[in-house]
Amino acid sequence: MPDLTEKKNVEDVPAQAAAAVAEPKPEKARSLGSDAWQDLRRRPIFVISALLILLLVVIAIDPSLFTSVDPRAGDLRNHYLTKPNYSHFFQPDWFGYDLQGRSIYARVLYGARASVVVGICVTLGVTILGGITGMVAGYFGGWVDTIVSRVTDIFFGIPLLLGSLVILNAFTSRTVWSVVFALVALGWTQMTRVMRGSVITVKQADFVTAAKALGAGTGRIMFKHILPNAIAPVIVVATIALGGYIATEATLSFLGIGLQDPTISWGIDINSAQKVIRTAPFALFFPAGMLSLTVLAFIMLGDAVRDALDPKLR
Question: pTM for this one?
Answer without folding.
Answer: 0.82
